Structure formats: C-alpha cells, structure tokens
C-alpha cells in the first residue's frame, strides 16, 4: 500500500525542505512545509527581519499576442489597460454571476505579453475557464495561453530587512519588464526580469516582483524549477547577516490574516462576489463589459446580502477558527471564514461574513463553537491593517505589557541580535535577548509614551533586575520614538552594560548591575 504522501504533489524544493527540517503536511493536494521552528518564530521573523517561503505550488500562466490585453480585460475585473510594461496589479476572475473563480496577480512583461500568478488550488479550474472564454473570444487567433506551472518554481522573500541583501542575488541591470539597475529600485507592484541559471539553450530568466501577501515589504521571485534549490540556498547565504529564516505556510497564513488579506476557499469562492468580499476596489466597472459586470454593477448600486468583516478577540479564549458561528446579542448573524492566534497581537483574530445592515454597536459580536466562545471587537475591513512593520508608528493598537512577558525566547532564536525594538502608538518595546545572570530570556517592556499604564501584578517570569529597570523606564513618562537601530555594543567584558544607537542619533545605555537606563540626548 502506498503512503498518503505518495499521492500528494511536491514542489522542486521538497527535498530541501526535508533537509532543512521543515514539518511537511498536506496543503491543497501538495506536501508543503507548515513550519521549520514554530509559526510564532517565523511570523515574528517576517514582521521584524526577513523570511523566505516556498510558493511554487502556485500557478504561472503566460498570456501573449496582439489581442492579449483585450482578452484579459474581458475576463478580469481590474483594468489591465492601466498596466505599463513592468507593472502588475491585483485582480479577480469572475463568472457570469459575479462569483470569484480566482483572485490573482497580473503583470505586463512586454507590449503583448502578460504573466498571471494564480492560486494552487485553482490551476485546473482557471485554465479550463481561460480556455472556455478564449474559445468564444472574437480575437482568439491572436491570443496564446501557456501554462508554465509545472516547469516554474516561486519563492516569496518578505520582511523589512530583505532590502539589505536582495540586490546581491542578481547581477547587473534587469533585462526585461521594468528596466532598473537592481531589485530594490523596483516600486510596489513592479516586476523585472533578470538572468538566473543556465540551460543548454543559454541563460534562464527569473521574474522578480516587489509584491507579497504578508503585509511587509518584500519580493516574489519566479525561477525555473531546476534552479529553485540553488536560489533558496543563495537567499539564505546572502541574507544570513540580515537574519533571514526559512518559513512555512503556517506563518504565511497568520501574516495574511493579520493584514486582512482574503484567501481563496475562505473569503473568496464562486458564490461570493468581490463587492461582498470587500475587494471592490479592484473592480473597474467603468472600463467596459467583462464577466460579471452587470451583477457587480447592481451590487455596487443596490448593496449586497453579506459583507466581509475582520475582528479581534477582546477576552481570553481559544482563537476563532473557520466555520465558527458569529453571534450578536445571542443572535446568530454570520460565520468565521479565517481565524487564528495573532503572534503580533497575542490574541485571537478572524475574518468572517455578516449581514450588511447588522448594527454591532454598542454590543460586541461574539464567536462561538462547541470548543470556544469569546468577546470580539469588530474592525473595519476596508483598508484595516492589524500588522505594523518594525519602524511604523501610529498604529491603532498596542500590545499590553502582560501579553508580552517572556516572549523574547522566540525572538532570540529568530533574530540573533542583542536588541530589537518596535514602535507602537504609545509605547516602544525593547526586546533584549538572553539575561546571562538570570539564565533565561526576558522582554524589557517599554520606554513609555503619553502615560504610564499600571504594571501587571504577575511578573514572575521577569527577573528582579529587569523589573526594576522596567519601573524606572516607566517612571520617565516621556514620549519617544526610537526607530531604526544602527549599532549595538557591550561596554564591559561581562556584558552587563550595553549601548544602542538609533538612526536619529539617540543612544540608550543600559546598566544591568545598577538597573538604570540613560538616554542621550535626554528626552524633552
């Protein structure tokens, strides 16, 4: 009898995932790594440093020919005519009822050549739909479809520190798409072509776009399958100093859920329209007729029967999961489509569908299943972003001190630097690594801004010296915004005194023996 894994598809990186210790699971018919260390580690690594994901299970379809633009504009919701060479856009492919067949990225590589990146679970359905639509398209003799999914591989390199090393992966200026000197010259949604690898016929091409599905800056790179392993190893090598880490699909899901990105099969399906899913911004009703145009026009004018919302839990409970019911004042009103524990927020978050006219105020909606029930705050779906980058101030949430205690163990494994900090709306969290005297990891909580919240009573997991330092820093009660860390040094042989310098010239000197902190220049 064959093992279950024998029936699953594998990407060109499968053997490398095994050698790197990836935990392989079934995902949409593929055997893929769900994690290498832990979802928490890999998630925070991408939020603060850099991570690389295997996305080779996704499909690549080239569409070319003199009528390619007109054909794509007929089957996709966004306006493909707005794409200049080297530019891409998020778009959707709908049926006549306005239901979503797939959501995808479309790139213009040349005057009459496009690349579509489609979801792994929809490759067969997408190709069948494309061929069906092309068969009745008036200019079909001038449109060519090529499914390159089996010969290509793809990786996503995501995180704020990717820019530190991505240029080292490609030599010289781009040779197609957007003409730039190096990858970091690309702007969001732009794509360029570089040489990567060789075959009997000559050099092979890599398609490099400044896109991603994590909410962080980064790049997605499509290479030939034969070159995928060498490229992954090159990323780990060149990105080592920037703390790049191999990441699995578990972190990719928590990352996209934090920033409210829809996932096909969860928020999107053939019975749900882009308007209902909250992605109507990517529907160009004024570009002319396309599949689903009439239905979407009516929904835009008259409203929808359901709407997609995002929420976060406000009390301690198990995280929400897909198919959990959503209640308001004991009334069942909807269903959860995506739900997880947010590593950034340290609480449950989710996405779901509810009636469009449901009044949630002042009542909090709740989620419920046989396994859990908890209070939740409803968030605005449109443009709401639960995630922040390491240097982004002004976010609309703050991680409570009590939620952050003793989490730096994961950070220490993921980001091997002595100090790392994140800026929030009214607090700066400074994370130190191993406390050598206490023999365990601590999280130094805060230089507070705009008010001192009450310190949590239970700080048993934080050493006494750390606690004293926390209280001293809290007593400063001054506003500060220390952004990018530029250098760090120990000032004594025992590493009990250390100084960190930030991009604005501010220095923070911590004396662990005296439990003091000095900030220069002093806070105003």
Q: Name the helicity range.
A: 10-25%
Radius of gyration: 25 Å
What global shape is seen? globular
Count of structural domains:
4
In DSSP terms, counting alpha (H) and pi (I) runs of 4 or more, how many helices? 10
Could you tell me the CATH topology label of the largest domain.
Gyrase A, domain 2
The tally of beta strands, per DSSP, is 29
Q: In order across it, which strands form the biggest sheet? A: 10-11-12-13-9-3-14
Largest sheet, in brief, is:
7 strands, mixed
Just name the CATH architecture of the largest domain: 2-Layer Sandwich
In terms of per-residue confidence, which ranges show pLDDT below 50 for 5 or more consecutive residues?
360-463, 472-484
Query: What is the straight-line distance between the termini?
Result: 73 Å
- Proportion in β-strands: 25-35%
Counting helices, strands and paired strands, the structural category is alpha+beta
Mean pLDDT reading: 76
CATH structural class of the largest domain? Alpha Beta
Q: What is the assigned CATH homologous superfamily of the largest domain? A: Probable tRNA modification gtpase trme, domain 1
Descriptive overview:
The protein is an alpha+beta fold and 524 residues long. The chain has 10 helices and 29 strands. Strands 10-11-12-13-9-3-14 form a 7-stranded mixed sheet, with helices on both faces. A 6-stranded antiparallel beta barrel has the order 15-18-17-16-19-20. The longest helix is centred in the N-terminal third of the chain and has 13 residues, at 123-135. It starts with 13 loop residues before the first helix and ends with a strand. 42% of the residues are buried. The model is unreliable at 360-463 and 472-484 (pLDDT under 50).
């Amino acid at each position: 009898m064959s093992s279950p894994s024998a029936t699953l598809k594998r990407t060109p990186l499968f053997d490398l995932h095994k050698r790197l210790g990836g935990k392989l699971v079934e995902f949409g018919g593929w055997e893929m790594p769900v994690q290498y260390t832990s979802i928490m580690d890999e998630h925070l690594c991408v939020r603060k440093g850099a991570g690389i994901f295997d996305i080779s299970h996704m499909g690549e379809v080239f569409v070319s020919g003199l009528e390619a633009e007109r054909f794509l504009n007929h089957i996709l919701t966004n306006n493909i005519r707005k794409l200049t060479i080297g530019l891409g856009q998020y778009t959707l492919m709908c049926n006549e009822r306005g239901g979503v067949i797939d959501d995808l990225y479309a790139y213009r590589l040349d005057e009459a050549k496009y690349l579509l990146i489609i979801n792994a679970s929809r490759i067969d359905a997408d190709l069948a739909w494309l061929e069906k639509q092309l068969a009745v398209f008036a200019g079909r003799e001038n449109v060519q479809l090529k499914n390159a999914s089996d010969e290509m591989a793809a990786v996503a390199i995501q995180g704020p520190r990717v820019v530190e090393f991505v240029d080292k992966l490609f030599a010289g200026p781009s040779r197609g798409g957007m003409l730039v000197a190096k990858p970091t010259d690309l702007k969001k949604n732009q794509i360029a072509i570089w040489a990567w690898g060789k075959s009997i016929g000559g050099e092979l091409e890599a398609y490099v776009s400044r896109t991603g599905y994590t909410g962080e800056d980064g790049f997605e790179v499509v290479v030939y399958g034969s070159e995928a392993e060498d490229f992954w190893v090159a990323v780990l090598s060149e990105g080592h100093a920037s703390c790049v880490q191999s990441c699995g699909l578990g972190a990719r899901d928590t990352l996209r859920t934090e920033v409210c990105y829809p996932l096909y099969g969860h928020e999107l399906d053939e019975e749900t329209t882009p308007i209902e899913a909250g992605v109507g911004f990517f529907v160009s009703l004024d570009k002319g007729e396309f599949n689903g145009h009439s239905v979407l026009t009516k929904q835009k004018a008259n409203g929808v029967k359901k709407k997609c919302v995002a929420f976060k839990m406000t009390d301690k409970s198990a995280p929400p999961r897909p198919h959990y019911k959503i209640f308001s004042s004991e009334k069942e009103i909807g269903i959860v489509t995506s739900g997880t524990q947010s590593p950034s927020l340290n609480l449950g978050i989710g996405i779901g569908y509810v009636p469009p006219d449901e009044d949630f105020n002042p009542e909090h909606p709740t989620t419920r299943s046989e396994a859990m029930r908890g209070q939740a705050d409803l968030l605005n779906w449109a443009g709401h972003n639960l995630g922040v980058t390491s240097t982004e101030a002004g976010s609309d949430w703050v991680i409570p001190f009590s939620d952050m205690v003793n989490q730096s163990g994961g950070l220490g494994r993921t980001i091997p630097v002595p100090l790392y900090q994140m800026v929030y709306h009214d607090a700066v969290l400074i994370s130190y690594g191993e406390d050598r005297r206490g023999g365990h990891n601590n999280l130094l909580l805060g230089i507070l801004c705009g008010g001192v919240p009450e310190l949590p009573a239970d700080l048993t997991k934080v050493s006494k010296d750390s606690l004293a330092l926390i209280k001293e820093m809290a007593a400063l009660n001054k506003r500060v915004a220390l952004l990018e860390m530029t250098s760090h040094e120990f000032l004594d042989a025992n590493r009990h005194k250390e100084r960190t310098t930030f991009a604005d010239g501010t220095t923070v000197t911590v004396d662990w023996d005296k439990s003091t902190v000095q900030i220069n220049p002093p806070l105003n």
